[in-house]
Please model this.
Amino acid sequence: MNKKIKKILNKKNKSKIVCLTAYSKNIAEILDKHCDLVLVGDSLGSVLYNFKSTKEVTLQTMINHSKSVRLGVNKSLMVFDMPYNTYRNPQEALRNAKMVIKETKCDAVKLEGGKKIIPIVKKLVQNKIPVMGHVGILPQTDKKFTFKGKKQQESDRILNDTKLLENAGVFSIVLECIETKLSKKITNNLLIPTIGIGSSANCDGQVLVIDDLIGLSKSKFKFVKKYIDISRIIENAVKRYKSEVIKKRFPTRKHSFNT
Ligand code: KIV
Model:
């Protein structure tokens, strides 16, 4: 088993697993120093491209961003989010996942879904491709983005899905916007770690979209915590630059080539 995956599995019930998304090298380099897992999420569709849905994200776009992220990630596990319609059956999933791993050198792939994708997960795992699951809100296919686990039937289905995914061989599962008591039940019911986003502190680890955390996106989700307003910092720097260019204070002799 991949050493980085083993490290993540070993954290279950011991210490929290720190995960973030990255879409390019410079940010990835910073995250790599502090994260256990870096996810190249298809959330880049809305965060970077203003797409209404992640359905519009193509495999090639994900590959391009992942190649950039790979340049910055060394220590942590790098996970590639398989976009919509790239894993509709086991054969398609295997073909695309093999190509993605060859092109991007990612360590694992992530797939959204429960019972329906079990044969797909099994096919990848049988072919030694590490798979991360994703249940709760499924941005690729859900119509409504409301938190999951309000109704008993829905809770039972999600709990069952996570067990099926574990048995199929996923090494971890993202729980997206799952009700607090249900995320605890799922986490306690599994031997593999759960990674929450909007799913309370009951999960074994947490993930957020980096642009949300640093205040680069305009996201207003309840589960997001903005740790810094980087947009303001960038804007201040740009304003100072503009002013210095206009006032001819930049560039100075120091920034010029002089003989
Ligand atoms: O696409 C993404 O960034 C994700 C995370 C939010 C888990 O799937």
User: Anything to note?
Assistant: The chain has two domains: 3-228, 229-259. The beta strands are 17-21, 37-40, 77-81, 108-110, 131-136, 172-176, 194-197, 205-208. The pocket of 3-methyl-2-oxobutanoic acid is lined by residues 21, 39, 41-43, 81, 174, 197, 207, 209 (CB under 6 Å).
